[in-house]
Specification:
heterodimer; A: 811 residues; alpha+beta; 4 domains; 56% helix; elongated; B: 249 residues; alpha/beta; Rossmann fold; four-stranded antiparallel sheet; 32% helix; binds adenosine-5'-diphosphate; binds magnesium ion
Chain lengths: 811, 249
């Protein structure tokens, strides 16, 4: 009596539900997948957000992050001890950073920032952690940051060749790896950092004093204003005591520099996942409408044997709830697994460890709700509507007969057409528009997927435009930054002797800090001072004017800087502190983006342009250059890099202290790389949307074929071949997709505007310009046609297998 | 077929004065029933002022030409369709006053319907088809239901096919299943609209014998038929023509 036991557990109503699901496996899978996609993506992103935030902040807090960092010319242990005694300061740590460059196994030179740490076992702030190998590093040894090792493929025990700014070369042994969470990892900016002892530093020709002071303030460390006040006070005190403070940096308290960017990316992706979830409702609506139409007679029978409206609604709600539960069954584990992979990827990218992975229960709860709510909401109308039908209307054929009549009429007209000339395109068109609400509900998800997809390309183009703005602002190929001023005529002549160099221009430069009206420290800014008649800068002035001859304390700033300084406008006065001295400047003009390094917060100071004459005069360096700009005859990155390397060699031979030789092209390449990470993630989400759209299309095509069984049978009876029937279905799919593509392209305009603004504000602190993504529109067209073909393949196959007998038996 | 499939419990009975709750003296009473259909060609009067009374335990045949209104008449009694005017009393219930919901509930427990085209649920097995009415109307304890269903299937002699889907059965077998389903909730009244119209004469005879057994057990049975032989074997024949009852004997 096994069977009977089953009957006891599951009553016939639910058995019917399960049978219906099982009978139409393809349909069930389609609906379940459509719901699952959104629920899965939401689960993945919500879990990832929680897990990443938890891991990152935990790990960040564990390294005792500095509340503020000051860059001084030089100081010693006495100062550290004095600072540690101050009541407002809880901890202080002194270090020395030392710029060198490193020869990669590929033959390429990259920047290597060495940090000398006095006591590796007693770091009071911004702790560097031991990763592997020896600890602390011995003489002539270096601990490389672990991301450097993995990104550049350097191993423990390797010997590396480095070169200091006075062009001397040294070999260091990589005695181990360290982990510094405060550094932007090499995966994101291809620089390198390493850690040495002071004795190694001295061997390298560095000084035995510190130049970086990291402090943790006492009191409310989470209050940025408090930190700023304490740090500014400290800075004043140090200056009063005769120290030269170059820079004061106060990061967001308790927040890893990348945390807010990470949260924004995650949030944007989450919005997309919720959209894809919402769109799956359209597929459910279409499917349920069709199911309910087919169940007309069965509803009648159920009512005839005593089924009440409420019970019948229950039966079909049960069906959609099972859809939801099945979707949950897929989405829950897939979401956790996806979150794990995603977290691993991000942790790797941002160079932190994933110590805890714990999918929060509220995410499961949300997913469960989502999986059940969407199907029920989407299906409730078709279900209630159909459950209202009277037994009489359902069982007697009077209601249906009228519909049949209309259909026969249509079929008749179709047949006529086929006799005249087989016109599959015309037939397909007619089919497409027969069920308009279903068509709409199929078009919308596809169009939204398309608009999103195109918008992502729009953001990419906008990024490229911005990067292009930076590129065209600098009408030069190579920048050479000197560690100290050299005679302009001398360095120019030397540079010109290097093959490939066409022209040079000598600039002055300085780092400065903005002093806000209330005396607080503002963001750092790099002053670039080209000669007043320069052609190396082609600023597009958005407001105000460019520098004029005779301008003294006039500044032309980039939008990026003004965005960081709400309240400042063109024409305003602004106080800058240079080498410890405050001066008033005027903002004369505003250009587009200037910062060459930033596609993320905390990745570089903004730039302001000033007149060479004035800056050189206040620095006492007239006729001298701290920066030499170079134009070459090489059009491409590789050629320019060659010239840059040759310039470096040449200056080294002359014994000049060149801090950095950079090609603008390489800087652009770095920016581009980071941009692609973001674009890639967004594209992934757009593809999820497209999957939902494609599933919807498949569903619609299947329903259309199913409901047209009779019509197809008639066509077959009068001689339509398999091929021509398949063709009709496939062309119909393509018609729908082309329509959706058109709508998607139109929709992409507001989508692109919105996405460009959001992404721009997050990553560049300014809205990205709207760019019409022709390329995206084209690619989406190609993808759409592929989706159309894939989605109609199965329905077309099914249509071509319908026999005349089957067709006539269908009701 | 000797098993008692009916317990005849909880049914409306005449009170001391021999009348039901609404004063009707017969189990089924139609008073001045009128049915009007709206069609594209204008209004169509399918039943014209029909008066009919049926006693408990009666076996009635409804005969008439195609389109005369037979189905419309029996649909009034099952509550599948509602009268445009007039009153319908069945036992203690004034059917014409019930809404769809209450009608469905009442029908499930009080009327078993057998259709010409069987109308079994195609995705449920025969047994499950029988369980469905009990489930909807919450009749009998879940344990009892299967026993009862199997018992009914034995009565109609298709117990062997209990776990098959309807499509696997012949027309006669399906109609037996449909009759068993109509009896599932042990309703006092059975209504069959051309139950043998789709069956060969031998099978039709078997079904008719089943009906006679049900009458012997005290059921009230109303059957639409074209078969004049069958019509001779019932208690009373109601002849309908153009929506009017033309004879009753
Ligand atoms: N829902 C309806 N709409 C319009 N006309 C109907 C409807 N139901 C029945 N009729 C008409 O009412 C008449 C009686 O139908 P019916 O009772 O089904 O006849 P039969 O005696 O064959 O069972 C027929 O002429 C039929 O066309
Ligand atoms: Mg009839």
């Amino acid at each position: 009596m096994n069977v009977n036991k089953q009957h006891l557990i599951i009553n016939p109503r639910w058995r019917k539900v399960l049978r219906d699901l099982w009978e139409h496996k393809a349909r069930t899978i389609l609906v379940v997948l459509a719901i699952a996609v959104g629920v899965f993506a939401f689960g993945l992103l919500a879990t990832a957000q929680v897990v990443l935030d938890h891991n990152l902040s935990e790990e960040y807090l564990a390294i005792r992050p500095a509340s503020a960092s000051l860059t001084l010319r030089s100081f010693d242990d006495d100062l550290i001890h004095a600072v540690r005694q101050m009541p407002d300061i809880e901890a202080a740590e002194g270090r020395r950073t030392f710029r060198t460059r490193l020869l990669l196994p590929t033959g390429e030179w990259i920047e290597l920032n060495l940090m000398a740490i006095a006591d590796y076992d007693d770091m009071r702030a911004n702790q560097v952690r031991r990763q592997s190998g020896s600890w602390p590093p011995g003489r002539q040894e270096v601990l490389l940051e672990r991301s450097v090792a993995s990104y550049f493929n350097i191993h423990e025990g390797d010997e590396i060749l480095i070169e200091t700014s006075d062009a001397k070369q040294y070999t260091l042994r990589v005695s181990g790896l360290a982990h510094d969470l405060t550094q932007i990892p090499s995966h994101l900016i291809p620089n390198a950092s390493g850690f040495v002892s002071f004795s190694t530093l001295e061997w390298l020709g560095g000084s035995h004093t510190y130049n970086q002071l990291d402090i943790i303030v006492a009191g409310d460390r989470g209050d940025k204003a408090h930190v700023q006040t304490v740090a500014a006070d400290l800075k004043k005190r140090l200056e009063k005591d005769g120290y030269i403070v170059f820079l004061l940096d106060v990061p967001e308290p308790f927040q890893h520099p990348m945390a807010s960017m990470l949260a924004t990316v995650n949030y944007m992706l989450m919005v997309l996942s919720i959209v894809s979830y919402g769109l799956s409702g359209f597929l459910i609506y279409n499917t349920m409408s069709s199911i309910m139409a087919q169940q007309r007679k069965q509803i009648g029978i159920m009512k005839a044997v005593g089924g009440r409206e409420r019970q019948i609604i229950g039966v079909y709600l049960g069906l959609v709830i099972v859809f939801g539960l099945l979707a949950l069954l897929v989405a829950l584990p897939a979401g956790v697994l996806g979150a794990r992979l995603f977290c691993q990827y991000v942790a790797n990218l941002l160079n932190f460890d994933l110590r805890y992975f714990h999918a929060p229960k509220w995410v499961f709860a949300m997913q469960s709700l989502m999986a059940l709510i969407a199907p029920v909401l989407a299906a409730i109308y078709p279900i209630i509507h159909s459950a209202r039908i009277t037994v009489h209307a359902a069982i007697t054929d009077y209601g249906v007969a009228l519909e049949r009549l209309r259909q026969d009429d249509l079929t008749g007209r179709l047949v006529e057409r086929i006799r005249g000339l087989p016109r599959p395109v015309l037939l397909s068109l007619r089919n497409t528009f027969r069920r308009q609400s279903r068509l709409m509900l199929t078009l919308v998800p596809l169009a939204i997927a398309g608009a999103t997809f195109i918008a992502v390309f729009g953001v990419r183009s906008a990024f490229q435009t911005k990067i292009g703005e930076t590129t065209s602002l600098y009408n030069l190929d190579i920048q050479i930054i000197f560690d100290r001023p050299y005679r302009s005529s001398y360095v120019s002549r030397e540079a010109m002797s290097v093959p490939g160099v066409v022209e040079t221009e000598a600039w002055a430069s300085s780092s400065a800090t903005i002093v806000l009206p209330d005396g607080a420290i503002g963001p750092p800014v790099t002053l670039l001072a080209p000669p007043v008649d320069t052609t190396y800068i082609q600023a597009s002035i958005k407001e105000g004017r460019w520098l004029l001859p005779g301008d003294r304390s006039a500044l032309v700033v980039g939008e990026d800087l003004l965005n960081e300084l709400p309240g400042y406008r063109v024409g305003d006065d602004i106080t800058l502190e240079i080498d410890g001295q405050q001066r008033a400047w005027q903002i004369a003009g505003r250009t587009g983006r200037t910062s060459s390094s930033g596609t993320g917060p905390g990745t570089g100071a903004s730039i302001a342009f000033v007149n060479y004459d004035y800056l050189a005069r206040i620095q006492g360096t007239q006729g001298y250059a701290t920066l030499l700009t170079v134009r070459t005859d090489r059009p491409d990155l590789i050629g320019q890099e060659q010239v840059a390397r040759a310039l470096e060699e040449h200056f080294k031979d002359r014994g000049l202290a060149t801090g950095r030789v950079r090609t603008i092209s390489l800087v652009i390449k770095d920016m581009t790389m980071r941009m692609y990470v973001l674009i890639g993630l967004m594209l992934l989400m757009a593809i999820l949307l497209a999957i939902v759209g494609a599933l919807g299309l498949t569903g619609t095509m299947s329903l259309n074929v199913l409901e047209r069984t009779r019509e197809i049978g008639i066509m077959r009876a009068i001689g339509a071949t398999n091929r021509s029937i398949r063709q009709i279905v496939i062309i119909e799919g393509n018609v729908i997709v082309l329509l959706s593509w058109t709508i998607g392209t139109l929709l992409s305009i507001p989508f692109t505007t919105f996405l460009s603004r959001t992404v721009g504000m997050t990553f560049m602190k300014e809205p990205l310009p709207f760019t019409l993504p022709i390329e995206g529109i084209g690619i989406w067209l190609g993808l759409s046609l592929a989706i159309a073909t894939l989605s109609s393949l199965l329905p077309a196959q099914r249509a071509s297998r319908i026999s005349v007998r089957e067709a006539l038996a269908y009701e | 077929m000797s098993k008692a499939i009916s317990e005849q419990k909880g049914q409306a009975v005449k009170n001391g004065n021999g009348v039901y709750k609404y004063g009707n003296q017969r189990l089924i009473e139609l008073q001045n029933v009128l049915k009007n259909y709206k069609t594209p060609a204008g209004d169509f009067m399918a039943l014209k002022d029909v008066n009919l009374g049926i006693d408990q335990g009666e076996f009635i045949a409804v005969i008439g030409k195609s389109g005369s209104g037979k189905s419309t008449l029996v649909n009034m009694i099952t509550g599948i369709d509602r009268p445009t005017a007039g009153e319908i009393y069945i036992g203690d219930v004034a059917l014409h006053t019930l809404n769809e919901e209450h009608t469905a509930q009442w029908r499930g427990r009080n009327v078993g319907i057998v259709f010409q085209f069987f109308q079994l649920m195609p995705t449920l097995t025969i047994l499950e088809n029988l369980l469905l009415p009990m489930d909807f109307c919450n009749m009998y304890a879940p344990r009892e239901r299967i026993e009862r269903a199997m018992c009914l299937l034995e009565v109609v002699e298709i117990a062997d096919h209990a776990h098959k889907l309807p499509a696997a059965l012949s027309g006669g077998q399906q109609q037996r299943a449909a009759i068993a389903r109509a009896l599932a909730n042990d309703p006092p009244i059975l209504v069959a609209d051309e139950p043998t119209g789709n069956l060969d004469s031998r099978t039709a005879e078997a079904v008719f014998l089943l009906f006679e057994d049900l009458i012997a057990q005290g059921k009230t049975l109303l059957m639409v038929t074209h078969d004049s032989d069958q019509a001779k074997r019932v208690h009373r024949t109601v002849t309908i023509s153009d929506g009017e009852i033309v004879s009753e004997d």
